[in-house]
Amino acid sequence: MGPLYKLGWFDFAYGLQMAGLIGFFFGFVLERAGFGNVRKLTAIFYLRDFAVLKVMFTAIVVCMLGLLYFSVFGWIDLSHVYILPTYIWPQIVGGLVLGIGFIMGGYCPTTSIVATVSGKLDGLIFIVGMIIGSFIFAEIFPLLEKFYSAGDMGAIRLSDVLSLNSGIIAFLVCLMAVGAYWFVEKVENKFGDRDTLPGGSKRVKRSAAAILILLGLILAIINPDRVVVNRPVPQVQTQRRVEEIQKPSPKAEKPSSTKFEIVEDEGC
Amino acid sequence: MNQRYANPYVIGTLLGLVMLFSFYTMGRGVGSSSTFARVATAGVDLVAPEHAKANAYFSKYLSGSRSPLMAWLVFLSMGAGLGGLFSAFIANRVAGEVARGPSIGVSARLWLALGGGILSGFAARLARGCTSGQALTGASELAFGSWIFMLSIFAGAYATAYFFRKEWL
Questions:
Q1: Which of A174, B41, B135, B147 is the right S-S partner for B68, CB 3.0 to 4.6 Å?
Q2: B72-90 vs A12-32: helix crossing angle, rounded to 10
Q3: Nearest chain A Cα distance for residue B34, angstroms
Q4: Which of B8, B29, B86 sits opposite A55 (nearest CB)?
Q5: Model pLDDT for residues B4-45, shown as the tens digit of each residue
Q6: Do A200 and B9 lie within an 8 Å CB cutoff?
Q7: In chain B, which residue's Cα lies nearest the Cα of A160?
Q8: Minimal CA–CA distance to A83: which of B16, B143, B122, B41?
Q9: By the 8 A CB rule, do B52 and A31 touch?
Q10: Average confidence (pLDDT) over A155-169
């Protein structure tokens, strides 16, 4: 049962190697999508090519469904997954400024790495800018400290805000994603260059959309929140797990053989 | 140069699976922006260690005996660089150039890239993450603030896209 690291399957040093591996696939798929190309990235803001939105929404929907189904099957314990806390005001202002930085510089942080390694000097300059921006933030942090913690709502989720169970939220997200794909393809066909837009048969797209909605609908019906709460505590299978459960606090979960610790206060 | 890119829906599915793998193994999603904050911290720590330790934000990355660069997202970013290079290389897309629209000069583009980078680096620290670590990761966990953050990114970019049209179109 996952997450493996939090349950003591491997230590920090091995986690860093995992990070390298996960990063490799992350960078690889971003470059495959053309996200090292600044004009492909910014085309979304001129309604010509919505690849950014399609990739983002599809990744979110796939990962969301995966997490919820894994938790229903008992493959992952979501209480050990780090949920990003909500600080609503800095997130709104940060998002707006990041959006302006995106259209001005042409990249977001990860895509600038991909652009830089494919030889784009502007990507490297963007990275230099981000280092300077982080430096400025830290230097004026005493002034921002109050705003940085403004609107603290804790690790709150959409299901808490809307008072709906996660399954219904997942179903709504699936519907929203399919609706967004349909809408942006209409817009693309109007404003975009048809020669460079991806093809794909209508039948495949319709089938994929139907599968997506079906998977969401199943979640909405079985209600993952209820299934997970009602599940009996799984039988301890290994000696290591026995030791963990006997430890008094969840903080003591880290492997005791190392002095390494998890830094969890950051999402990105 | 090869301009044929993969289908975005296929890429999105693969990216979602990469994120799911990250959650399953490490209990957290992907990200990158704090890498740059850590590089800044390491630089300040090298030049003025006392100043770095006195600063409330830098000191966050300096706790413990390790270098601020011995961190999960730093290794993830390095991996992303390697993966991106591999993909660009096999598609014959590695080329030294300044990417820009047809109606802007090289130096203007580089200054704007610097400005955009500064804004992005600052904003990512303020919002505790960027497009990947906050928007993608948080949204797939259905975290409320991450959805608001993602909508804010699009709002900020669409609202100002008109003023930067000469840079791209």
A1: B41
A2: 30
A3: 6
A4: B8
A5: 889 999 999 999 999 999 999 988 889 889 999 999 999 999
A6: yes
A7: B144
A8: B143
A9: no
A10: 92
